Fold this sequence. Notes:
By secondary structure, the protein is mostly helical. It has helices at residues 20-45, 51-77, 89-103, 107-132, 145-148.
Amino acid sequence: xxxxxxxxxxxxxxxxxxxxxxxxxxxxxxxxxxxxxxxxxxxxxxxxxxxxxxxxxxxxxxxxxxxxxxxxxxxxxxxxxxxxxxxxxxxxxxxxxxxxxxxxxxxxxxxxxxxxxxxxxxxxxxxxxxxxxxxxxxxxxxxxxxxxxxxxxxxxx
Length: 157
């Protein structure tokens, strides 16, 4: 997976941890994944015939945008500015595959890409990062892992 940070990224804190660039990249990847998920759910809402399914997809899109915002806020707490790059190769491939399923009005195909491919990547990567991070709280590896991701696991500035 390619890095989403630039060599001259801005930081808010004058005494950064030596691991700050690592956390900056981890958070950038997480933010990008959350934004891809938000875009996917918004696109999914466009092919929903049932108003309740449409509303559910839009609600999920908003939740994913909230996750991205919380990751960015956690980065600011530790003094790193994070970026996102939804055009990065890995993310673009997932998004393009999802859009092909949207074009085909393949609701099940969309769910496979979003819920299995993208969400399983998120759960696996967050669980892995959580094990490597200091002061990790135990979390269940279910859908609610998103609300607890990296919380209390990022070093203080």
